[in-house]
């Protein structure tokens, strides 16, 4: 999962891009990058680290220009080297940079095609660089010295025909403008907005609406699945549906975990969706344990707060903050090794004894993936004096890998892999464990909204909406995503072997 932003304005965009990336920092803490364009030249700064660490005053001064794009990385495929920080750049045609959120599922085939047929070079393990080169080739194939919106939309149409997977991307063409496009299934989110100024209208594309809010932009709408939005350097906006059979099947895990609660994604309030998740979970608890002895509901900060609060209200029990969070430790879900995750949990959270001592406590988390965090948190609750520790997940058991841009582990590293709920309960040390039902999760996410979607729920039910995922793909993915493999990959340089058919995912 990554965060992307593009801005076409009437003045320098460097500060605006910086602010937007900071607001989107929750989508990736591994690397950050920004490219601006001025008088026919690109100005680039990218490196590993948080936004505040990558961009210093000396870098910002050099990032001049009235249009630009930015990216924050949470690595999925490839290594975590600074060479794979985005945006990526190609000089032909025209000069193009691209930032991408998601994961391509046919990267291996694309790498061979790009190398052997398009005669282009891929220098990293990143599928984002592959996507950039596919787009660049299709734009070059239009054979025009001065591309207009029709040429750009035709290139995006051809990208959709060649590329499979989940992707939201923003590209900038030197001297022409910024284009944003979304995969035909709309798996990864993208929105655009506008801001009125004395000099004229400014436009912005971003992963989440909170980035627009932070800069005073009005949310216009989501980019539709398969659609492309082109904003010229002069500030003229054009859009076109570029996919043959678009169907909106957004990733439901955005609402469960990744997105900020104050975001609106595909017309659904993330905050309201999480409240409804808590309400549905409370209903299930009342069905299964109407005589429960829960004294207090405590969330695992931060994502589960909304669900936990509504759950407590529906059960009629106290809601309390029992864990204090160290804001300077990253999200454990996206840390690149089990050893580091284990170490970080107790650095990240500290229990307030007075909220646990002598009580039957229900801990609420947004989901359970590896089980590492919840096992240690349950132990912390017992050490703080809890009588009984119950655990609730606002999402169903995560049993299958995500292939569309969320770096979930190899399936053997899932706590729910080949385990019943009772076995998971024993493994994490809870006195009682309850999961959300999948149907309840889907209905909760849409409840109160004017829209109903067929979400991508593949991490829960193994139904991959792109239809191209088989056992061989998942087996190959598993060898790349286990922690031992990642550790080895991060020790390497990140240079791809173009002659190896298994070079990329």
Number of DSSP helical runs: 18
> Could you say which structural class the secondary elements and strand pairing correspond to?
alpha+beta
The amount of beta strand, in percent, is: 15-25%
Helix content: 25-40%
- Give the averaged pLDDT, no decimals: 91
User: Biggest sheet, open or closed, and with what strands and sense?
Assistant: 7 strands, antiparallel
- Distance between the ends: 16 Å
Multimer state: single chain
What general form does the structure show? globular
Supply the key terms.
six-stranded antiparallel sheet; alpha+beta; disordered C terminus; 505 residues; 18 helices
Task: Describe, in plain words, how this protein is organized in 3D.
The chain is an alpha+beta fold. Helix content is 33%, strand content 23%. The chain has 18 helices and 22 strands. It has helices spanning 14-23, 51-54, 57-62, 107-116, 127-140, 149-162, 209-214, 253-258, 270-288, 305-315, 338-348, 353-356, 372-383, 421-428, 438-446, 458-461, 471-481, 483-490; strands at residues 3-8, 31-38, 41-48, 67-73, 88-90, 96-104, 165-173, 177-182, 191-197, 200-206, 218-222, 227-232, 237-241, 264-265, 268-269, 296-299, 318-319, 323-325, 349-351, 360-365, 388-393, 432-435. The strands form 5 sheets. It has a 7-stranded antiparallel sheet with strand order 3-2-4-1-10-9-11. A hairpin with a 2-residue loop joins strand 2 (31-38) and strand 3 (41-48). Helix 4 crosses helix 5, helix 9 crosses helix 10 and helix 11 runs parallel beside helix 13. The protein is globular.
